Structures are given as structure tokens and as C-alpha cells.
Amino acid sequence: QVQLQESGPGLVKPSQTLSLTCTVSGGSITTTSYAYSWIRQPPGKGLEWMGGIGSDGTTTHSPSLKSAIILEMNTMRSEDTGVYYCAAKQWTVETMPDAYNMWGQGTQVTVSS
């Protein structure tokens, strides 16, 4: 298994761009058979899959996601506030957060002026 660690700014202003990095240790991103995704949890709500990249190099992502390792979101809004997780599983990307068995600790992102 790999270990995942998210990092990035804890506070961003509305309309700014958010950039988060998921650092992977215990394996190579390019050689291991893992798929990576970004998943977030707004306050008081459930987990929400945002996008990911599969072990075969295919990408499944929302328009705002460049890669599963570096997440960039443009024009942040207050409703984007939440805890952002990097997660991994074997082989293919799935949109159900429960499918992932490797998780980072999460990083809090607050969108506020």
C-alpha cells in the first residue's frame, strides 16, 4: 500500500484558485497499479468524489481537475469549503468514495474573504 499526504493553503478567498498536492510515498505513482482520486466532504455533508486518474493512465475527471495528484480548482466559492482527501485503490477509478481503501488524513480548505 501507499501513504498519501495532502498539502495546500487552508484559506482561500472567493474567486481565487485552489491548488492542492497529494504526495505519495511507499510506491511510485507511475509504476504501481493504483488509481488516485480527490474526494471532499463539505461541513455536515457526505463524501463527494471529484475526479481521479487510473493506473493505466486514463483520466476521469471533472472539468476543474487536472490530475489526481495535483488538484486545481478555479473560481472558488464558499460552498467549496470542506475537508479535501486524496485517496487510492487498486486498478481503476471509481466514483464511490467507499471503494477507496487508502486515504490521506485530509486537509481543511475554507473559502472566505
Describe the structure.
The chain has 113 residues and is mostly beta strands. The protein is 0% helix and 46% strand. Strands 2, 4, 5, 6, 8, 9 and 10 form a 7-stranded mixed beta sheet that branches. Strands 1-3-7 form a 3-stranded antiparallel beta sheet, with no helix packed on it. The termini are far apart. The model has no long low-confidence stretch (mean pLDDT 86).
Backbone CA Rg? 13 Å
Low-confidence runs: none
Strand content: over 45%
Q: Give the H and E element order.
A: EEEEEEEEEE
The biggest sheet, with number of strands, parallel, antiparallel or mixed sense and barrel status, is: 7 strands, mixed
Shape field: globular
Topology readout:
Blueprint: E1 3-7, E2 11-12, E3 18-25, E4 34-41, E5 48-53, E6 59-61, E7 70-73, E8 82-90, E9 102-103, E10 107-111
Parallel strand pairs: 2-10
Antiparallel strand pairs: 1-3, 3-7, 4-5, 4-8, 5-6, 8-9, 8-10
Features:
single chain, 113 residues, mainly beta, seven-stranded mixed sheet, three-stranded antiparallel sheet, 10 strands, 0% helix, globular
Compact overview of the structure:
With 113 residues, the chain is an all-beta fold. Helices cover 0% and strands 46% of the residues.
